[in-house]
């Protein structure tokens, strides 16, 4: 709201509005979560150091763990480099909490809306899950993720048309010469992820169509720089693989157990922290029946 109202650009004016007080309350909730996580982890580390133990499963052998939690890495860096302050670590944790949860939740929502109004696509996803898991209800393992080719294509197609973050801001650190103009150093630029994903020049005449099959060809579809759901270049999202693993896992469990029916062809959107539908997105969730029960 503030970004679209030039009269609220001034910090002095904005601080006097109800919106500022609401924003402070919301930020306090987020900070409480990150501070609680940090305090708990810091206490655990201190206790482990006192006891002379480590976090890995091979503590007897003294081997370093293969993977470390992001927060542990930051805490270790702060011990080696005092310039990395606790406030900076908290800011990174805040980013992970917001960026790693809100975006995944939005993508799951839009994906279920899309497959709910396109039975053919939902059936293909279900058939793929059946080929991987059969009739079992076992958990998803790492090896399963690489086999979910069509599921991955559906996720990418959803992200292309409905990026959870429809636009980002970037600061130019040097002059940038484009075909039509020159962007001078120090300019703040708005990058339109929504528009790039729907560009007919980048994706072809069927750019507006929801067609997961475009991601299954041997050659990548469109211009790679036109797919901006995870941003692009050096500032691209570091959690892409993590997000894709979560999305595939959730969808696998949902589609094996449930069937979705939606009305999502005429959605109207609004830009909040993430992209959100405000109308035309009704969805029904039903217990899935196998083909034998359907025939009966």
Structure description:
It is a peripheral membrane protein. Its main location: endoplasmic reticulum. This is Cytochrome P450. With 296 residues, the protein is mainly α. The protein has helices at 11-14, 18-51, 70-80, 86-116, 119-133, 142-147, 149-161, 193-197, 200-203, 240-257, 291-295, and strands at 167-171, 176-177, 182-183, 188-192, 258-263, 268-271, 275-279, 282-287. The chain has 11 helices and 8 strands. The strands form 4 sheets. It has a two-stranded antiparallel ribbon. Strands 2-3 form a two-stranded antiparallel sheet. α4 (86-116) packs parallel to α10 (240-257) and α5 runs antiparallel to α7 (149-161). The longest helix has 34 residues, at 18-51. It is globular and about 55 Å long.
Query: Regarding CATH, which class of the domain at 101-295?
Result: Mainly Alpha
**Oligomeric nature of the chains:** single chain
Total helices: the number is 11
Please tell me how large the radius of gyration is.
23 Å
General form: globular
Could you give the order of strands across the largest sheet? 1-4
Write the layout of secondary structure elements.
Blueprint: H1 11-14, H2 18-51, H3 70-80, H4 86-116, H5 119-133, H6 142-147, H7 149-161, E1 167-171, E2 176-177, E3 182-183, E4 188-192, H8 193-197, H9 200-203, H10 240-257, E5 258-263, E6 268-271, E7 275-279, E8 282-287, H11 291-295
Key terms for this structure?
296 residues; single chain; 12% strand; two-stranded antiparallel sheet; Cytochrome p450; 11 helices; mainly alpha; two-stranded antiparallel ribbon
């Amino acid at each position: 709201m503030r970004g679209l109202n030039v009269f609220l650009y001034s910090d002095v004016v904005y601080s006097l509005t109800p919106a500022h007080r609401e924003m402070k309350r919301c930020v306090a909730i987020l900070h409480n979560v990150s501070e609680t996580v940090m305090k708990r982890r810091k206490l655990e580390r201190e206790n482990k150091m006192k006891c002379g133990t480590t976090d890995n499963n091979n503590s007897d052998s003294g081997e370093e763990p293969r993977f470390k939690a992001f927060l542990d890495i930051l805490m270790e860096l702060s011990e080696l480099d005092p310039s990395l302050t606790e406030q900076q670590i908290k800011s990174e944790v805040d980013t992970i909490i917001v960026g790693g949860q809100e975006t995944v939740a939005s993508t799951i929502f839009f994906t279920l809306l899309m497959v709910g109004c396109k039975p053919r696509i939902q059936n293909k996803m279900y058939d793929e899950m059946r080929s991987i898991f059969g009739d079992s209800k076992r958990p998803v393992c790492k090896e399963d993720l690489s086999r979910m080719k069509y599921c991955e294509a559906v996720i990418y197609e959803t992200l292309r048309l409905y990026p959870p973050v429809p636009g980002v801001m970037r600061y130019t650190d040097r002059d940038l010469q484009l075909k039509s103009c020159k962007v001078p150093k120090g300019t703040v630029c708005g990058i339109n992820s929504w528009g790039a994903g729907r560009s007919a020049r980048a994706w072809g005449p069927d750019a507006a169509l929801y067609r997961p099959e475009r991601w299954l060809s041997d050659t990548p579809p469109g211009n790679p720089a036109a797919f901006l759901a995870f941003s692009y270049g050096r500032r691209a999202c570091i959690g892409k693989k993590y997000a894709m693993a979560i999305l595939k896992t959730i969808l696998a469990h949902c589609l094996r157990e449930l069937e979705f029916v939606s009305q999502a062809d005429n959605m109207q959107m609004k830009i909040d922290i993430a992209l959100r539908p405000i109308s035309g997105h009704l969805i029904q969730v039903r217990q899935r029946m196998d083909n034998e029960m359907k025939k009966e």
